[in-house]
């Protein structure tokens, strides 16, 4: 059996090379995704940075703990309360206490300042020794307008204009790679950042814990725990979570695409051998012998191709890691490669898929009588096998049922990235399985080419529906993935921009040029602009215990009710915004309790509990409405957005000029604010979608050329017959080109239908959420994708056909 399989592989090497290439690339893709996913499971151990030389750090606890019948529930507080003066006084009895303060330093002259300074962070000079920073030039700051900078971007004597005034650089310290630090005097830092959320205590840790015993609002950090006091201590965990989600999604899409392409390629290669199987059955071969022969061939090709794919994946995986690091999707420490389990997963998956793809066709060939097998070799049967009907119907019903369930229970789930990336796969799979049934009516409707060659193209497409479907399926997958993924981002972006435009009644929107909140002086100047109705809002969050078990968090904005009502048009479904006060809250319909007048217990951004009355209820929309509270219920939240409406009789030009004169702010008109909301500004999301799409399209594009080569090489007899009937070589090449373009057009049409069906579910969800629902089809990317598939198919089919037409035809 093995020798027979080897001789068959050599005799039909053109078809098996196509399967080998498809499987090797698929296994390589699975290996790369597995290695990338494995690398995102563990973060490197980090030591304390800013407080590496500090004996003890005392920090205000920023963890909310809520008791529930199922145990305590915890969450991170967005606005942890500062350390109380009494705590600092008690610690001072044990040893020297150095308060730490951190605040953004905003260069004057725009978001980046006159010399491109971004991300400057201010600290008191007394904390520099705990990193430790050491002076490399100059001296320590002694006056309020003197600073010391980290790094070599400036030198002593330089003057720096900031939103806090003009300061003189009197010294520099070495750059430790932690941050772009600017050190002020302790008194000046205390004036710029009055609250103290952490402090260094130079005393015994046991004595510190003894003094603070019983105070649950304070944490004592020693040893490796001191890294909690560094800036953004959870950045590694957050980066891993984002990478895990990205490569989990990319791996799922890649697995679907590779499994689909590999199985269909092997099934197509076996289906091309119907005449051979019929002759073997006539000669006396049993069904079992045919099946064992085909499976032995698939086993040989599968094992070799899977091993080659693992080797190719091992080579490509580090390059993917470098790509995501350079693109800003991963931190600098991220490295891909080294895990063992992705090789096992990819190898055995590739081998099983190859056996399954070839085995299904071999099983059907073995159970078909010899005479019927010979008849099917000449004319394809009109009926679709029952197994394909069942599989395709199940996939279609699953897609429809899950969509209906999501629309009925939680329409917002359809707007999540994981959902709209994975949902098209069901529709794509159903369309691919049922493609022979779909291709024939499409061809009858749209394939109307003039002349004799046009008639031949039409008949070839209709009589060879399965072959046409096999060629059109990779095109359909490519177009459907491009249309669904890019269409989903465009539809969501358009809906978000339309919602922002509908809800914004302000003429101008002002945001901080640097940092997360306005400086107090800048905010005071904005409030004094003549002719302007100013609504200052702050980002915060509230949490509630739903059903007594789940601690659910909701984004919220703190605003004064009067100005808010005049500068926004929120989608109020019940109640009135004017009823919002310090004892009430505005919620959305996402809340478990959302009836006007009900009272809900919430935990504010600083962790304090409050019981508030529901004053109004908003439609869910795109999920950005959130809750609204008054500033009294958002302690610690800094104002990060100011909506400005020009009063009647005032000049918009004059108001804009006054607003621009305020240092440390960025002014946007309403139109600019709406444009800034579309497309979404999350760069990582955009790059992640492009990464997933690029990998899938690269693989499916190669499969388009691969399948075209396999199909063209198997038509040598048919091409010779056409030559003997009188067609010239040029006419046969034109016929081949027309067939290739027709097949690509049919596959593209199926892909567009899948795209429209998928995006229709998303627009239905937006409609149920009372959000704008513009169905946006990315026609330009679809045209580019279709053109690329057409060029690949033309090049592959014409090259193979030209090779088959060499020399003079001989009689059959």
What would the keywords be for this entry?
812 residues; alpha+beta; 7-stranded mixed beta sheet; 6-stranded mixed beta sheet; 23 helices; 23 strands; 52% helix; elongated
Structure, explained:
This protein is α+β, with helices and mostly antiparallel strands and 812 residues long. 52% of the residues lie in helices and 16% in strands. The chain contains 23 helices and 23 strands. Strands 5, 6, 7, 8, 9, 10 and 11 form a 7-stranded mixed sheet that branches. A hairpin with a 3-residue loop joins strand 15 and strand 16 (550-558). Helix 6 runs antiparallel to helix 15 (465-503) and helix 13 packs across helix 15. The longest helix is centred in the middle third of the chain and has 40 residues, at 287-326. The protein is elongated. The two termini are 31 Å apart. The model is unreliable at 109-116 (pLDDT under 50).
In short:
The protein is 52% helix and 16% strand.
Biggest pleated-sheet summary:
7 strands, mixed
Termini separation: 31 Å
What structural class do you assign from the helix and strand content? alpha+beta
Q: Which residue ranges are poorly predicted, with pLDDT under 50 across at least 5 consecutive positions?
A: 109-116
The pLDDT mean sits at: 81
Name the overall outline.
elongated
Strand content is 15-25%
Strands, count = 23
Oligomer: single chain
Quickly count the helices: 23
Helix percentage: 40-55%
Overall radius of gyration: 34 Å
């Amino acid at each position: 059996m093995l020798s027979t399989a080897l001789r068959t592989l050599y005799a039909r090497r053109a078809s098996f090379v196509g399967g080998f290439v498809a499987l090797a690339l698929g296994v390589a893709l699975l290996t790369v995704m597995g290695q990338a996913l494995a690398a995102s499971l563990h973060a490197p151990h980090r030591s304390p940075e800013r407080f590496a030389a500090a004996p003890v750090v005392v920090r205000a606890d920023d963890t909310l703990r809520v008791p529930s019948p199922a145990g305590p529930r915890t969450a991170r507080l967005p606005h942890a309360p500062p350390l109380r003066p009494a705590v600092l006084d008690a610690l001072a009895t044990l040893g020297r206490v150095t308060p730490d303060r951190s605040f953004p330093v905003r260069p004057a002259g725009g978001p980046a300042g006159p010399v491109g300074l971004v991300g400057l962070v201010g600290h008191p000079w007394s904390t520099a020794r705990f990193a430790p920073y050491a002076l490399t030039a100059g001296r320590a700051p002694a006056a309020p307008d003197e600073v010391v900078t980290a790094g070599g971007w400036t030198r002593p004597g330089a003057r720096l204009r900031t939103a806090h005034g003009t300061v003189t650089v009197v010294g520099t310290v070495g750059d430790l790679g932690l941050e772009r630090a600017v050190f002020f005097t302790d008194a000046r830092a205390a004036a710029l950042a009055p609250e103290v959320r952490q402090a260094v205590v130079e005393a015994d840790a046991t004595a510190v814990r003894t003094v603070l015993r019983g105070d649950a609002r304070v944490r004592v950090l020693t040893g490796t725990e001191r890294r909690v006091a560094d800036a953004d201590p959870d950045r590694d965990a957050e980066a891993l979570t984002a990478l895990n989600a990205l490569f989990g999604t990319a791996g799922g899409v890649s697995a679907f695409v590779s499994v689909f392409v590999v199985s269909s390629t092997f099934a197509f290669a076996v289906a091309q051998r119907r005449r051979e199987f019929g002759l073997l059955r006539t000669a006396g071969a049993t069904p079992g012998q045919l099946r064992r022969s085909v499976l032995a061939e698939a086993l040989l090709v599968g094992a070799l191709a899977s091993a080659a794919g693992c080797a190719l994946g091992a080579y490509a995986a580090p390059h993917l890691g470098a790509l995501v690091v350079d693109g800003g999707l991963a931190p600098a420490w991220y490295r891909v490669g080294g895990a063992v389990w992705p090789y096992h997963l990819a190898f055995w998956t590739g081998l099983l898929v190859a056996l399954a793809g070839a085995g299904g066709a071999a099983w059907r060939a073995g159970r078909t009588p010899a005479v019927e097998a010979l008849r099917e070799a000449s004319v394809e049967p009109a009926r679709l096998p029952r197994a394909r009907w069942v599989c395709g119907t199940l996939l279609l019903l699953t897609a429809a049922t899950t969509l209906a369930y999501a629309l009925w229970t939680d329409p917002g789930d359809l707007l999540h990235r994981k959902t709209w990336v994975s949902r098209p796969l069901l529709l794509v799979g159903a369309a691919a399985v049922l493609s022979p049934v779909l291709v024939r009516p499409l061809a009858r409707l749209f394939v109307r080419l003039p002349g004799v060659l046009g008639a031949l193209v039409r008949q070839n497409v209709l009589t060879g529906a399965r072959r046409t479907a096999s060629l059109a399926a990779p095109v359909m997958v490519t177009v459907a993935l491009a249309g669904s993924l890019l269409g989903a981002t465009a539809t969501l972006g358009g809906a978000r921009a339309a919602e922002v435009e509908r809800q914004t009644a302000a003429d101008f929107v002002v945001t901080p040029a640097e940092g997360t909140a306005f400086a107090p002086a800048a905010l005071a100047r904005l409030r004094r602009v003549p002719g302007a109705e100013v609504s200052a809002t702050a980002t915060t969050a509230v949490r509630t215990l739903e059903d007594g078990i789940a601690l659910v968090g909701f984004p919220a904005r703190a605003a004064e009710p009067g100005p808010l009502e005049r500068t926004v048009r929120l989608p109020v479904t019940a109640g009135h915004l004017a009823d919002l006060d310090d004892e009430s809250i505005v919620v959305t319909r996402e809340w478990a309790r959302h009836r006007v007048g009900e009272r809900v217990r919430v935990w504010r951004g600083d962790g304090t509990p409050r019981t508030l009355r529901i004053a109004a209820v908003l439609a869910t929309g795109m999920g950005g409405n959130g809750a609204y509270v008054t500033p009294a219920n958002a302690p610690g939240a800094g104002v990060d957005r100011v909506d400005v409406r020009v009063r009647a009789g005032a000049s918009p030009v004059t108001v804009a000029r006054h607003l621009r004169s305020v240092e440390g702010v960025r002014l946007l008109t309403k139109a600019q604010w709406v444009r800034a909301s579309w497309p979404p500004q999350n760069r990582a999301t955009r790059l992640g979608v492009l990464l997933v799409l690029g990998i899938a399209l690269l693989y499916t594009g190669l499969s388009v050329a691969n399948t075209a080569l396999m199909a063209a090489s198997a038509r040598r007899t048919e091409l010779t017959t056409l030559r003997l009937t009188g067609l010239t070589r040029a006419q046969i090449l034109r016929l081949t080109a027309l067939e290739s373009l027709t097949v690509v057009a049919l596959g593209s049409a199926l892909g567009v239908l899948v795209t429209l069906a998928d995006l229709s579910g998303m627009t239905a969800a937006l409609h149920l959420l009372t959000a704008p629902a513009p169905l946006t089809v990315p026609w330009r990317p679809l045209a580019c994708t279709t053109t690329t598939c057409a060029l690949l198919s033309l090049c592959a089919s014409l090259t193979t056909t030209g090779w088959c037409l060499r020399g003079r035809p001989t009689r059959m």
